């Protein structure tokens, strides 16, 4: 497989667009949990009932187009290889929970991969919509349109008091999880992040590191999302989240400026060392790759590295994960072999920029 | 078995209530039953209870073909989940669970949603019509409750008929929705 084609697979088309504040906010996402009113929830439903849901979705929505998102493709999890499923997770198009019932779970996905709808995850329907950069409000508006479109065909489980009835009480009400993915190297280097995360948690928002195990942030990428889904409207939840994200952006910009002014040489050294590692290493584990990619991305954003395009971080973060590496190698790889292939891939990718 | 309202005293009264064709079990201590208006203030109010069963479309548990066991926990009629199981796995088995455990959910939601127990957001477009009916029914039910407390049974019967008419409309709405 050619590297070009491979990269095309890693980056969803929408990720190539620049969004507002995309030097710090990589993407905005809205996820809505919905259920059929007359079918038992997936955790307890038998195969026949789950099939009713997947068949209905497949029949009603596959190849149908909704607005500018192109036609929806209907993909049954059972028809995918282990590596393909893993790649979908690494692209954040599906969650690992969807694979719990591989035989009876499915997804609808728009051609540009902006919209994906998981079928028989924890709830019957989990629709999610992405936009590049910081534009939560617009993402919410579009997610609502999509929700209305689905609702014409699906009788949702809904109650006036409890809102959208979800399998987990933490999703009841709006069923909405709004989140942004942020690159915060400045706050990590200046150690402000340890102080900010508990404060943000206290405001009813969740901060977690992305691509890391547990809460460890790999590549200084954090996901910030709402925790509460009941008692506040979707628009209010989004605007609360927006105001916190706006403040984080300001803090991050100040931290970057401070680093450049106070310890410019150290910062440059850090960035160019990482660049060197990515250009020349022969063995690269995922943790080091993430760290170096974050530094190089910071260098690009600060104008210190000029010859590489900004989207390379997003792209390589995805490309260098186990699922994609094994897809590229066309087979299962041991960890050490993955580290070697990762180094090779990154080197080749950087050469393409010149 | 504990009373499902106060969770303190033992439930001594067991009803089977039908709401829109769905059977629901109600277990209450005497005090809570009084507070809900199921019993009059007098201690010998059990005869009144029979009248109330009629008004609320309820039947005493003892006369039912499927007896309500006092040891078995209330299970969701659709998916079979009990409240204990719900607490253990932290997930509802189906939409009906919300109604089955309705009187125990406020503390659950209060805990996970910072004190909030009511949805304030989006309303599905298509369901808007039946929601309106539902709201009317809720209003009439509290009116009915009030009339019964005042022992104004004549008017109570009228209000009950109104509720039934609305419930029929609600069912039609639902069936029309299912035909799509
Ligand atoms: Zn009680
Ligand atoms: Zn249930």
From TrEMBL, chain A:
<dbReference type="InterPro" id="IPR014746">
    <property type="entry name" value="Gln_synth/guanido_kin_cat_dom"/>
</dbReference>
<dbReference type="Pfam" id="PF00217">
    <property type="entry name" value="ATP-gua_Ptrans"/>
</dbReference>
<feature type="binding site">
    <location>
        <position position="92"/>
    </location>
    <ligand>
        <name>ATP</name>
    </ligand>
</feature>
<comment type="similarity">
    <text>Belongs to the ATP:guanido phosphotransferase family.</text>
</comment>
<keyword id="KW-0547">Nucleotide-binding</keyword>
<comment type="function">
    <text>Catalyzes the specific phosphorylation of arginine residues in a large number of proteins. Is part of the bacterial stress response system. Protein arginine phosphorylation has a physiologically important role and is involved in the regulation of many critical cellular processes, such as protein homeostasis, motility, competence, and stringent and stress responses, by regulating gene expression and protein activity.</text>
</comment>
<feature type="binding site">
    <location>
        <begin position="27"/>
        <end position="31"/>
    </location>
    <ligand>
        <name>ATP</name>
    </ligand>
</feature>
<feature type="short sequence motif" description="RDXXRA motif of the pArg binding pocket involved in allosteric regulation">
    <location>
        <begin position="338"/>
        <end position="343"/>
    </location>
</feature>
<feature type="binding site">
    <location>
        <begin position="208"/>
        <end position="213"/>
    </location>
    <ligand>
        <name>ATP</name>
    </ligand>
</feature>
<dbReference type="InterPro" id="IPR000749">
    <property type="entry name" value="ATP-guanido_PTrfase"/>
</dbReference>
<keyword id="KW-0067">ATP-binding</keyword>
<keyword id="KW-0808">Transferase</keyword>
<dbReference type="InterPro" id="IPR023660">
    <property type="entry name" value="Arg_Kinase"/>
</dbReference>
<dbReference type="InterPro" id="IPR022414">
    <property type="entry name" value="ATP-guanido_PTrfase_cat"/>
</dbReference>
<dbReference type="GO" id="GO:1990424">
    <property type="term" value="F:protein arginine kinase activity"/>
</dbReference>
<keyword id="KW-0418">Kinase</keyword>
<feature type="binding site">
    <location>
        <position position="126"/>
    </location>
    <ligand>
        <name>ATP</name>
    </ligand>
</feature>
<protein>
    <recommendedName>
        <fullName>Protein-arginine kinase</fullName>
        <ecNumber>2.7.14.1</ecNumber>
    </recommendedName>
</protein>
<feature type="domain" description="Phosphagen kinase C-terminal">
    <location>
        <begin position="24"/>
        <end position="255"/>
    </location>
</feature>
<keyword id="KW-0021">Allosteric enzyme</keyword>
<feature type="binding site">
    <location>
        <begin position="177"/>
        <end position="181"/>
    </location>
    <ligand>
        <name>ATP</name>
    </ligand>
</feature>
TrEMBL record, chain B:
<keyword id="KW-0175">Coiled coil</keyword>
<dbReference type="InterPro" id="IPR036876">
    <property type="entry name" value="UVR_dom_sf"/>
</dbReference>
<dbReference type="Pfam" id="PF02151">
    <property type="entry name" value="UVR"/>
</dbReference>
<dbReference type="InterPro" id="IPR001943">
    <property type="entry name" value="UVR_dom"/>
</dbReference>
<protein>
    <submittedName>
        <fullName>UvrB/UvrC motif-containing protein</fullName>
    </submittedName>
</protein>
<feature type="coiled-coil region">
    <location>
        <begin position="149"/>
        <end position="176"/>
    </location>
</feature>
<feature type="domain" description="UVR">
    <location>
        <begin position="134"/>
        <end position="169"/>
    </location>
</feature>
<dbReference type="InterPro" id="IPR025542">
    <property type="entry name" value="YacH"/>
</dbReference>
């Amino acid at each position: 497989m050619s590297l070009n084609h491979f990269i095309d697979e890693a980056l969803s088309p929408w990720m190539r667009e620049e969004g507002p504040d995309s030097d710090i906010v990589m993407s905005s996402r809205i996820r809505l949990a919905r259920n059929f009113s007359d079918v038992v929830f997936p955790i307890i439903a038998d195969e026949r009932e789950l099939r009713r849901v997947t068949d209905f979705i497949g029949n009603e929505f596959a190849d149908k187009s909704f607005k500018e998102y192109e036609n929806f493709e209907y993909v049954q999890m059972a028809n995918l290889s282990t590596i393909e499923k893993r790649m979908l997770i690494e692209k954040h198009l599906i969650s690992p929970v969807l694979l719990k019932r591989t035989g009876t779970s499915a997804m609808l996905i728009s051609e540009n991969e902006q919209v994906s709808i998981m079928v028989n995850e924890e709830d019957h329907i989990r629709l999610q919509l992405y936009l590049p950069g910081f534009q939560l409000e617009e993402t919410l508006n579009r997610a609502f349109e999509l929700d209305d479109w689905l609702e014409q065909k699906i009788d949702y489980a809904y109650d006036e008091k409890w809102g959208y009835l979800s399998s987990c009480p933490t999703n009841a009400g709006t069923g909405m999880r709004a989140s942004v993915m942020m690159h915060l190297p400045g706050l990590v280097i200046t150690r402000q992040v340890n102080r900010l995360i508990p404060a943000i948690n206290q405001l009813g928002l969740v901060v977690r590191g992305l691509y890391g195990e547990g809460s460890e942030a790999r590549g200084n990428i954090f996901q910030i999302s709402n925790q509460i889904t009941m008692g506040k409207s979707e628009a209010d939840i989004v605007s609360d989240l927006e105001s916190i994200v706006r403040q984080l952006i300001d803090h991050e910009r100040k931290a970057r400026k401070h680093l450049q002014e106070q310890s410019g040489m150290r910062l440059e050294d850090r960035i160019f060392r990482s660049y060197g590692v990515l250009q020349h290493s022969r063995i690269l584990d995922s943790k080091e790759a993430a760290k170096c990619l974050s530094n190089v991305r910071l260098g690009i954003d600060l104008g210190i590295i000029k010859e590489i395009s900004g989207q390379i971080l997003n792209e390589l973060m995805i490309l260098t994960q186990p699922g994609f590496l094994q897809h590229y190698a066309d087979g299962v790889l041991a960890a050490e072999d993955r580290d070697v292939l990762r180094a090779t891939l990154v080197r080749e990718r950087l050469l393409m920029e010149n | 078995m504990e009373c499902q309202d106060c969770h303190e005293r033992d439930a001594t009264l067991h009803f089977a209530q039908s709401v829109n064709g769905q059977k629901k079990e109600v277990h209450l201590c005497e005090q809570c039953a009084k507070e809900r208006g199921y019993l009059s203030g007098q201690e010998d109010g059990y005869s009144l209870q029979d009248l109330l069963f009629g008004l609320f479309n309820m039947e005493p548990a003892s006369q039912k073909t499927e007896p309500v066991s006092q040891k078995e926990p209330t299970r969701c009629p659709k998916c079979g989940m009990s409240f204990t199981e719900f607490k253990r796995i932290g997930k509802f088995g189906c939409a009906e669970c919300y109604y089955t455990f309705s009187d125990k959910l406020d503390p659950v939601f209060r805990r996970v949603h910072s004190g909030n127990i009511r949805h304030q957001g989006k309303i599905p477009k298509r369901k808007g019509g039946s929601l309106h009916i539902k709201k009317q029914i809720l209003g009439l039910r509290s009116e009915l409750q009030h009339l019964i407390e005042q022992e104004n049974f004549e008017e109570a019967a009228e209000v009950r008929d109104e509720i039934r008419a609305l419930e029929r409309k609600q069912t039609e709405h639902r069936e029309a929705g299912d035909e799509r």
